[in-house]
Amino acid sequence: MTEHQTRRYTFKLYPNKAQTEALERQCVLLARLWNAALQEREEQWRREVERKGYWRKVKRPKDERPQGLGYYDQARAIKHIRADDAEYAAMSCASMELCLKALDLAFRAFWRRLKEGVPAWQAGYPKYKSVRRHRTIWHRDGSGWKLSPAGTQWKFYFKGVPGTIKARGRFPMDPDEIRTMEIVHRDGAWMTSVVVYQQPRRAPGATPLRIAFDLLDRFAVVKNAANGECLPGLTPNFLSGEGRITELFQGIKALSDDGAGELAGDGRDATGALVARVADGAGDCDAIQSARDRKYKKGSYRWRRETARIAKRKAKEARVRKEALHHWTTRVVEHASEITVSAPSIKEHTQSGRGDQFEWGGAVKTVAALNRNTLEQAPAMAIAMLEYKAAEAGIPFRQVTDEETKLSVGRDVRETVKKTRKARRKLKEAA
User: Fold this and answer.
1) In the predicted structure, residue 355 carries a pLDDT above the cut 80
2) 20 to 30 A from 384, CA-CA: which of 119, 321, 342, 428?
3) End-to-end CA distance of the chain
């Protein structure tokens, strides 16, 4: 085990009107600083390229190549910005430094991906931030902010924000050191994300476990890796959001067994009924969203009100799901001496059924419903929780890809519908 571990904990803020306005203003200032720094880098690089002719395919010594700006080159201007602008002077200097540091890290990651052979359009070039949508404020320990207990709750002080802001949250154990903090506006609420150093707080169990993610009829199955015995006490009760997944799987198998020739006669009705059964289980949020788009004009007051209600409902579902995953992964790690996770490739098995101009797809609604059902269970989040909690407990963690998975039902139904369509076209041409 390590001497200390780095962990991040979230606190919910309850600012008043004046404090909210101050936080929003700081977000705007940091977005402008990011955009100005990004523009300065682009203009300086353009001048360097024009001066040294970098577009020519000529090998040059390193000192003759164009050199871009770095963090320290731009951080020197912070003192001049704060001297000329009272709004920047009122906020924490560390927030401005960390904003430029985040931009520098984004550029480093971009250049690293290019060297690794990633195409330029996928390498993640840093983008300009929208002043209206940017909602992040960076802070460093001991500079411009303070966290103090207030009974069963907490109070945060931020430089440039009037008074102290009430907050709700907790540390599972007293941290050894508080490192950094970010303020973010997410799901209609202000949050703080605090990074701390702390002692290990998890103890390993005595049973080697193997976890197989199903994601259709059930969430996952936990077994003893030594004897293959199923452990129902650790198997979660996270059933899939679509109550008709088993019926769908059986229906696809029946359609595939019948063959494309027999489907040509009544395949339209059978496939259409199958699509309807899956699409009907899309969930309450999808039903509310469909009613919103049908009744109200986009951008109107009622349309925005329904959008806010959908976002609030989805945020609550995400919080409930995350809390359930935390409880389950904690129980698993408490019983495990080692963990092996067997999961399918989520990205591969959640591809859209639309197809492209060269190869048409099929069963778009059905595949979309299946993909939503898989992604809404957040398997990647569960695996990430298991991995870092296993590291906390000091036990081995291994992940393998499950090649034989029922998630391929989406691909099967898409191929079945395409075969039906082709068979129907051949019969029509032969008639």
Assistant:
1) no
2) 119
3) 74
Torsions phi, psi of 354, nearest 5?
-70, -35
Output b/e per residue, 364-382; b: 16+ Cβ within 10 A.
bebbbbbbbbbebbbbeeb
Predicted TM-score of the model (pTM): 0.69
Q: How far apart are CA 230 and CA 409, in angstroms?
A: 25
Report how far residue 288's alpha carbon sits from residue 300's, in angstroms, rounded to the nearest whole number.
16
Q: What is the per-residue pLDDT for 268?
A: 37
- Please count the CA atoms within 13 angstroms of the CA of 251 that sit on its side-chain side: 21
Rg (CA), the chain: 27
pLDDT tens-place string over residues 67-90: 778 999 999 999 999 999 999 999
What is the full DSSP assignment across 126-193?
A: --PPPTTT--EEEEETTBSEEEEEETTEEEEEETTSSS-EEEE---SS--SEEEEEEEEEETTEEEEE
Q: Is 224 helix (H, G, I), strand (E, B) or coil?
A: strand
DSSP state of 122: G
Q: Rounded to whole angstroms, what are the CA distances from 24 to 31, 132, 134, 163?
A: 11, 9, 9, 16
Instruction: Provide CB contacts within 8 A for 94, sequence distance 6+.
Output: 138, 139, 140, 143, 144
Are 197 and 179 a contacting pair, CB within 8 Å? yes
Run of H or E residues at 222: strand 220-224
Is 221 in contact with 238 (CB distance < 8 Å)? no
Measured over the CA atoms of residue 17, residue 191, residue 71 and residue 55, the dihedral's sign is negative
Confidence of residue 130 (pLDDT cuts 50, 70, 90): very high
One-letter amino acid for residue 245 of the chain: I
Structure tokens at 153: 């709750």
Sequence-separated (6 or more) residues with CB below 8 Å from residue 406: 214, 216, 217, 249
- Whether the CB-CB separation of 175 and 159 falls below 8 Å is answered with no
Helix 260-279 with 409-430: angle, nearest 10 deg: 130
Residues 6+ apart with CB under 8 A from 367: 352, 353, 361, 410, 413, 414
The position carrying tokens 């904690």 is 330
Question: Contact 394/200 with Cβ under 8 angstroms?
Answer: yes
Which range (8-17, 130-139, 173-182) has the least confidence?
Answer: 173-182
Pairing of strands 207-213, 336-343: parallel
